[in-house]
Write a structure and sequence with these properties.
The structure is a single chain. Helix 3 crosses helix 7. This protein is about 35% helix and about 20% strand. The two termini are about 30 Å apart. The protein is built from 8 helices and 12 strands. The protein has a 7-stranded antiparallel β-sheet, covered by helices on one side. The chain has a 3-stranded antiparallel β-sheet with strand order 3-5-4. The longest helix has 19 residues. About 45% of the residues are buried.
């Protein structure tokens, strides 16, 4: 078992292999490489894009993640929209100063969002003035996928990658599934594939823990705490991560399951 951090979350690798220590070191280096692309708190590729409004020759991983975001944006009718960052920053700054943002401030921040206003290709990624991206609703899962791909290329199959979201390359070496314990209670057995969970109140802006960090790009308001936890299984952890984030903003089980239809093997695994 290797333990570390990935984008501020505790990360674990469970590897059954005679060269496990060396392989874990490669995985740790891969996590560091990806943090240099996706972190909002270092001079990452994403931070440079937000600061300058344009990123030349973007890393392939960033482009692939943006393409995934686009698919989930379309499938959820815009409920998942990483351009929500100006609104998120407004909430964070307002509550740090001791007060909720006003409706006028929220509407002004919403005016600086909109996935359709993002442009990206192999040459550059471009944001309109005042816009910014957060990939916090997808990047932990995306990193789990990238680490899983690296380990699979090394010939491993009995591995569970945990970056806050989960990616299983196969069962445990004894053939048993990996028991993924959920924060709201219960567990999901994972043999092969990915799992991600989101909670409207998993992280909060206010000291009382009532104003959650998942914000609607349609209204600018926090997701209501309808459920303690939404857990999605999917072929990739990045997809499961993005879908579970969006699910927190949906009204009922039917709407959540409808958003999963375009994605083969994506399932609502747990709703508490």
């Amino acid at each position: 078992e290797w333990q570390g951090m990935a984008l501020g979350a505790r990360a674990h690798l469970y590897i059954d292999h005679p060269e496990a220590r060396a392989i874990a070191a490669e995985a740790e280096a891969e996590i560091a490489r990806l943090e240099a692309i996706f972190s909002l708190y270092t001079d990452s590729s994403l931070a440079q894009l937000n600061r300058l409004g344009r990123l030349e020759a973007p890393p392939f991983d960033l482009l692939e993640c943006l393409a995934l975001c686009d698919s989930v944006y379309q499938a959820t009718g815009g409920v998942f929209d990483p351009t929500i960052q100006p609104v998120w920053a407004l909430y964070a700054e307002s509550y740090a100063a001791g007060a909720a943002p006003s409706e006028e401030q929220v509407y002004a921040a919403l005016a600086r969002t909109g996935w359709s206003r993002l442009r990206y290709d192999e040459a550059s990624v471009t944001l309109e003035p005042g816009m910014a991206l957060t990939l916090n609703g997808v990047a932990q899962g995306f990193i789990a996928d990238r680490v899983g791909a690296l380990l699979k290329a090394r010939g491993l199959s009995h591995v569970l990658v945990d970056t806050g979201e989960f990616n299983a390359l196969g069962p445990q070496s004894n053939g048993a599934p990996w028991p993924v314990r959920l924060t709201a209670g219960g567990q999901v057995d994972l043999t092969k594939g990915a799992l991600a969970s989101s909670s409207a109140l998993g992280t909060t802006f206010d000291p009382e823990g009532r104003v959650g960090h998942i914000l609607s790009p349609l209204t600018g308001r926090p997701a209501p705490s309808r459920w303690q936890l939404v857990t999605i299984t999917a072929p990739s952890a990045g997809l499961a991560d993005a879908l579970s984030t969006a699910a927190c903003l949906m009204e009922d089980r039917t709407q959540i399951e409808g958003a999963l239809v375009p994605f083969a093997e994506a399932r609502l695994a747990h709703l508490a």
